[in-house]
Amino acid sequence: MLFKEVHLQDIRAGKITLAFRKWQKASVKKGSLLNTSVGLLEIDSIETVNESDITDKDAKQAGFTDKKQLLKSFSHKHTGEIFKISIHYYSEDPRIKLREQTDYSDQQFDAVTEKLARLDQYSKNGHWTNKVLLSIRDHPNLPAAGLANLTGFEKEWLKLNIRKLKNMGLTISHTIGYEVSPLGNNYLNKRNDSKNKK
After folding, report:
1. What is the pTM of this model?
2. Both 161 and 143 in a single domain?
3. Which Gene3D superfamilies does the annotation name (predicted)?
4. Structural domain span for residue 135
């Protein structure tokens, strides 16, 4: 569930408390937490509504000037039911605190190594995590298309899987491109040290 940046800022400020989406089926449920650029958002409730049930007040609570503008925001490609979603700002993104870690215990190192091994094991592209992490470290702020050319992986697949590294606190996404986080650099350094000791 995606939001425009201006709407995210207003959700954080408490100015926006509703969202409307047209879906074939709900992609979120009550109690879900959404990771966004402003932090975590929580879904308070979700219900289907008829177009006639939506009011101008609802539209304003969703960040639009009136009902007409809200309805225009639905893409012609989107079919299905209209969902009315109550939402509020929940907390800072926990990944930010995680990725800034500079202390790295052996237990943390082993846990991350195990998670990366699982990502490699279940990937249709085989062992990709090391190649992608090193490519991002050596080419910071390179867009996904550039990383795709560099690594040989398909761009959309790469973007989806870099998000998995971000969720582990290993990378940081920018408006253009990526970089390895302090936690990611610590992991790569520790892994390099352990290889050199063998």
Report:
1. 0.58
2. yes
3. Hypothetical protein
4. 95-197
